[in-house]
Each structure stands twice: as structure tokens, then as C-alpha cells.
Amino acid sequence: MLNLIRAVSRFLSTYTSLFVIACAVIAFFIPMLFGWVHGNTSSIILGIIMLSMGLTITMDDVRNLMKRPGDIFLGAVAQYTIMPLVAFTLTKVFGLDPYLAIGIILVGCCPGGVSSNVMSFLAKGDVTYSVSMTMASTLLAPLMTPLLVLWLADTSIEVNAVGMFLNILYVTVFPIAIGFTCNYFFGKRAGFKEFQSNMPAVSVIGLALIVGGVIVTVRPQLLTNGFGLIALILAVVFLHNGLGYVLGYSVGRLFKFNTAKKRTISIEVGVQNAGMATVLAGAFFANPENLALHPEAALCVVPCAISCAYHSISGTILAGIYAHMDKKKAVQG
Questions:
Q1: Which residue ranges form the domains of the chain, and what is each CATH number?
Q2: What gap in Å lies between CA 82 and CA 95, rounded to an integer?
Q3: Quick check: 163 and 284 in contact, CB under 8 A?
Q4: What are the strands, taking DSSP E only, across the chain?
Q5: Which spans are transmembrane here (predicted)?
Q6: Which whole-number Å values give the CA distances from 26 to 10, 278, 308, in the listed order?
Q7: pTM, 2 dp
Q8: Over residues 8-19, mean pLDDT
Q9: Averaging pLDDT over each range in 114-118, 124-128, 248-252, which range is the top one?
Q10: Most buried of 213, 241, 278, 323 (most Cβ within 10 A)?
């Protein structure tokens, strides 16, 4: 049984993007399987994902965070300026509907994605810096995400910044703190390490459930608007994510980072915690009360759901490109 769990964990960690996309497709054609994933259920699942992140944080990571305040500060500034402003600019360039706009703005205003640490490892980046950046941006999220959304959102849409602050605090910071505390006290025990090693698979399943639940919510809108809506959002998500990689790498070059750190800041800036954006969109904009008054509010979760899958795919591809560049250089050298 234990070997089966390990095999499933390895499979999900290796094929995260394919699994998330498969669940999204299944949710579209068999909505009853994912219809239960909404509201508080989505928040609980996100909390479990963030708990899994906390379980990987060690005292060495905390010490590294303290040792590199300048680099971490620079990374946090890049995270919370580049992606929100690129998102806002794209909403204006494409003339997006206010609720579609709030979806991509939410993605831009969220912290770095948990999977960015794995991608940084695959890209031969600075993994310690990656973990530190993810920690810093996530701990800042309760303050930065609501403020940025409030600032950038269309004035016709009411933004509950206080509620968003509390929600992020409950479903991100608290679970991370609990996970870190458990790792601190039990991290050397063999049973705990086994449990710890399977948590990435739990995160993947959690992300897939959140995306599936979102697809069920927006299914009527997708059926009504068809391929045109998907193509539009894919174009926006592609540019948002791609510009994040390019501008993040440019920041590293500007401040003369070494190659590993340039790759890391590129991935950290480009890969967002779109799962968090999805939960926030469902809780504060596509909630039943608002949908009753504004059915089009369901659109806000579409960019978040697509970003969940797309960021995982593009980040993995980028990491593979970086790794291929190293192999090519080694052969030539």
C-alpha cells in the first residue's frame, strides 16, 4: 500500500499539468463530480495546499530569509509591481469586461506559486532563494493582494479588501505557520518524513479540485460564449505569464544576479499562486449573492482557472529550456 502511495505521489508530481488539465476537462463534461468544490470547501482545500508548503519549510530556510534581506526585498518588489501592473495593462489593451479584468488582476496580485520552487530546482536555479521569495511574497499577501486589487480593480466592482485580508490570513499564513511548526518539532522522525514526501501529491490533487470546481461554476458562461472567450483569455494569460518571465529575468540582469538567481527570479515572478486567485474570485466576486445580481460575475474565475493550469505547463517548459541550455553548453565546452 505504501509503495502504491509513493508511486501515485511520483506520478502526480511529474505530471501535474496533465492531471490538472484532465480534471478540468472531466469537470466540464461531468460537472457533478466537482460541483461540491466551492465556497468554504475551496478555502479549506487551499489551506491544505498551503499547509503542505509549510511542512517543507525548515529553520535553515528561515535563517536564509534573514541573511538575504536585500535580495528577498528586491524579489518581493518585483513580484508585487511587475505582475499586477502587467495584468492591469493587458486588461486595458484587450478591453476586457470588468469581471474578466478582475480575474487576471487577481492572478497578478497574488504571491508566487508553490510549484515555482520545484520549477526552480528543475531549471538549476537558486532553490534557497526561490523558497525564500515564495515565503516572503506569501507572508506579504494578506496586506499586498487586497490593497493592489482595491487599487487596480474597475471602480464599478466593489472590493471587500478587509474580507480578502482575513481570508488570505486564514487560508495561507496560518496553515503555513502550522506546517512549519510541525516540521520544526517532528521533522526528524521517519514517519513524519514519509508523510512529508507525499504532501506534494496532496497539493496537486487540491489544485485540480479547485480548478474543477471553477470549471463547473463557469461552465454556463463557457457554453454561452464558446471558443472566442477561451481564445481571448488564453491570449491574455499567455502574455501575462510570458512577460512575467522576461521582466523577472531582466530585473536579475539589471542587478547583476548570477545565472541561477536570474532563472529563479524569472520563474518566481512569472508563476503565480493562481489557486489562491481562484479561491478569492469565487469567495468575493463570483459568490452566490453577487451572481444572483450579476450573472456575468462568473467570468472572473475563468482567467484564474486557466492560469492554474497554464502557469504549471509554461513553468515546467521554461525549466526544461534552461536545463537544455546547460546541457548544450556542457557539450560545447
A1: 27-325 (1.20.1530.20)
A2: 20
A3: yes
A4: none
A5: 12-37, 43-60, 72-94, 100-123, 135-153, 165-186, 198-218, 230-252, 264-285, 297-323
A6: 22, 18, 16
A7: 0.84
A8: 73
A9: 248-252
A10: 278
Dump pLDDT digits (tens) for 238-284. Answer: 999 999 999 999 999 999 999 989 999 999 999 998 888 988 998 88
Positive/negative CA dihedral, 127, 133, 135, 138 = negative
Residue 103 exposed, middle or buried by CB count within 10 Å (0-12, 13-18, 19+): buried
How far is it, in rounded angstroms, from Cα 273 to Cα 90? 19
Task: Tell me the DSSP string of 89-145.
Answer: HHHHHTT--HHHHHHHHHHHHS-B-TTHHHHHHHTT--HHHHHHHHHHHHHHHHHHH
> In terms of C-beta density within 10 A (0-12 exposed, 13-18 middle, 19 or more buried), how is residue 94 classed?
middle
Contact status, residue 112 vs residue 307, Cβ threshold 8 Å: no
Q: How far apart are CA 83 and CA 88, in angstroms?
A: 9
